[in-house]
Automatic annotation (TrEMBL), chain A:
Residue ranges the record marks as coiled coil: none
Gene Ontology biological process terms from the UniProt entry: protein processing involved in protein targeting to mitochondrion; signal peptide processing
Molecular function terms from GO: serine-type endopeptidase activity
GO cellular component, one term: mitochondrial inner membrane peptidase complex
Chain spans, region Disordered: 153-182
Source organism: Lingula anatina
EC number: 3.4.21.-
Protein name: Mitochondrial inner membrane protease subunit
Domain Peptidase S26 stretches: 6-98
Catalytic site positions: 28, 76
Subunit structure: Heterodimer of 2 subunits, IMMPL1 and IMMPL2.
Annotated family: Belongs to the peptidase S26 family. IMP2 subfamily.
Superkingdom, natural source: Eukaryota
TrEMBL record, chain B:
Entry similarity comment: Belongs to the peptidase S26 family. IMP1 subfamily.
Organism in which the protein naturally occurs: Lingula anatina (Brachiopod)
Record-given protein name: Mitochondrial inner membrane protease subunit 1-like isoform X2
Compartment annotation: Mitochondrion inner membrane
Main location: mitochondrion
Transmembrane domains' residue ranges: none
A single GO cellular-component term on record: mitochondrial inner membrane peptidase complex
One example of a Gene Ontology biological process annotation: signal peptide processing
Subunit structure, interactors included: Heterodimer of 2 subunits, IMMPL1 and IMMPL2.
Keyword terms, alphabetized: Hydrolase, Membrane, Mitochondrion, Mitochondrion inner membrane
Sequence ranges assigned to domain Peptidase S26 in this UniProt record: 18-89, 96-138
The keyword Secreted is annotated on this UniProt entry: no
Amino acid sequence: MNKVLVGGAVVGVIYSAVGFPSKIRGRSMTPTLNPDDSKYSDYIWMSKLGSQQFKYQRGNVVCLVSPKDPKERLIKRIIALEGDTVKTLAYKNRQVTIPEGHCWVEGDSKYRSCDSNIFGAISMGLIQGRATHIIWPPSRIQRLDNRYPEERVQIPPDSKHIPTSNPSLGTSKHSILANEKE
Amino acid sequence: MAFRRGVRLAGRLLKYGAIIHCTAEFVGHITVCHGSSMEPTIKGGDVVIVEKISINFQNIERGDVVLCRSPVDPRTLVMKRVTLIEGDVLDKTSTSPFLAKVPTGHVWLEGDNTEQSKDSNDYGPVPYGLLQGKVLLKVFPINRFGLLKDKCLD
């Protein structure tokens, strides 16, 4: 009994402070996650490291509590941070300046996603963690990159969040293929 | 000999640390409050017990005092009262310029000390996902111990 309690507590600490695997449902992040030609659902590693500091970068793929339904978790990419001005894709306003403490999230699949284009900028406090890698199926194991549509985001010169010089941290099979196509 | 004792102590500390962390994370914890936005119900220095079970079952009602991540700064926690829940009509005399109804998946928060409180009247309805716990009761100071069901009229 004591061992079960301690085991449970250790799992609890890892789940809340380190991370856990998560199955991706839906196609809103295609082709990065669950590409159309894949028979199986991707599993990602959801990292909780640094999640209490909320120091996320543009391009990070994150897990957030849906602002429309608190029982639902969404996985989207951060496109813009507070202070940035973003050109929206399907939102009521053509351009949005992100308010303090908020960010703009989008699914990689432009038109199959319930994201900020539907519900607007979200409070950063809704973000639970960051998806760092695809861990299953074995053929798709890779690190997720931090590329985002820079051409649609205007970062003010006095921004608190300076983009890192190398937006594509680490290589992935997907980004190599994309570069080759270009 | 001392080394073995040290290892056993470290193991025990890690074990209790893990249990305490998980309790605080999933069940509830004690919080010391700051600020004046909930006066006179809660004053700076008061100690309350926050429980984390109700929010996981969306069991929040009008009148509950909650701990919430600030919509404008995720690293700050604020303590406010839920005055309206999703679907409720916003008071027409309210000074806020926001929508007529509290949207789905959101709540309206207000500090009991209306003048000294930065709350939904400033930043609008708050998504449910920002709520971190419900205040169960105040444990200190002892002369004002108890549930915070209604606004204190002091």
